[in-house]
Amino acid sequence: MAIVLLYVVKELMQNISNLYFFYVWLSSCILILSILGTSVVDSKKHKGVCRSAGKGKFKKTKKVMGYYPVYNFKIQSPNNSYTDVLFFVAEPQTNLTFSFGQNLTIPHAEKLAVEFVDLAKKHNVNPLLSIGGWTGSRHFSELSSTAERRTSFATTMVKYAKKLGFVGIDLDWEYPNGEGIGCNTHSPQDTVNFGLLLKLHELTTERQAMMWKSESCGPQAQLTAALGLNGLIGSNGSPADATETAGIAENLDFVNLMAYDVFGAWAPTTGPLAPLYATCAPAGFGQSVETGVEIMVKQGFKVQQIILGLPAYAKRLELVSPELTPDDGQWNENPGGIADDKPGLDVCGNEQKWGGSFLTTELISNGWLSKDQKTGMNGYKRHFDKCSGTPFLTNRKYFITYEDHFTSVSKAKWAQEKHLAGVFFFDTTGPTKSTVSAAARAL
């Protein structure tokens, strides 16, 4: 791999006169290479990932997916054993164009996307384009509201993904019939309209033109969607029934279950970020991996469609009192790490405060968690909450809820036992290489 990269660099050096742009290009390539790596899919080491069945015949096995946040492309972590990586995130606008957040110009983001796709395919990783996200779901309802708009939206998404070379599309609508970040347009018909969008010819037959033959994962033209733990909301404001969700369940290859963000700065007390179980949960916070999968199945999705989301980050909250009690862990907001939300105005024009987020790897580099992730350090003590099946750290001043190596692996094992399609990490900047590899082996 190093020889190939050096050759490309040599060729480009002969043709690129502007050294500054060459430096930017090379930096981007190295960062993306750190994610995709030369051993992204190793069928000899990792059972459960896509692997060749010989001479053009492929069999699907378990997915190990990762969301690659383009807005944090400068801090990507070392390569891991992913089968699919999702370029996150293109935000659809009402004029049928896409933006990539406030910190990236469209030309720069598209350049990064093309390089990302090229390197992914060279390493037999399926590159998908993720559309929407927390800040980019404001216009989904409007774009899906009529047959004409749905057709235009579907056509635009497929053309854009094909233009950049992606082999699949992930729709991250947060959330149908909900305000989401606070200023989303929404309608009681959103869930049904979402299904009508997904069943269009443009997103079923036409996207097959995006297929490519990977030596490891076979022909891929996936259509996935990220859904929350509470499931889809129906026209009456309550959880949708299977008739309302049928169009979604029948036309998606996979559902990426966002099984995290149960507790955080939005909750009145401290609690688990991503509970496997909700055994001791207070009223109003009974979401968990277990309940989320149950809701998905009740709404008509097959367990074999569900890919379980694993957070690769932590939430740190400053405690009001050093004494932790089951239902009264009060807290104050405080700054997080390198990828944390910064104070300022969000896309809705509302004040945004610190999110208190840290990458899991930052817990180690900051000296709060040992490298083997078994012990708290520098005043922090590691605890394990049997009620939720997750760890947390405390030092009498701060409470840190997070996902570590062991809980990621235990959830992957749980996913295997429940016959789920696999796991995904949100996002690729946070987990250690050994955590992703171990999760892959557990499937």
From TrEMBL:
Keywords: Membrane, Transmembrane, Transmembrane helix
Keyword Transmembrane helix: yes
Gene Ontology CC annotation, any one: extracellular region
GO biological process assignments: carbohydrate metabolic process; chitin catabolic process
Domain GH18, first and last residues per copy: 62-443
Transmembrane regions listed in the UniProt entry: 20-41
GO molecular function, one term: chitinase activity
InterPro entries: Chitinase_II/V-like_cat, Chitinase_insertion_sf, GH, Glyco_hydro18_cat, Glycosyl_Hydrlase_18
Protein name in UniProt: GH18 domain-containing protein
Organism the protein comes from: Puccinia striiformis
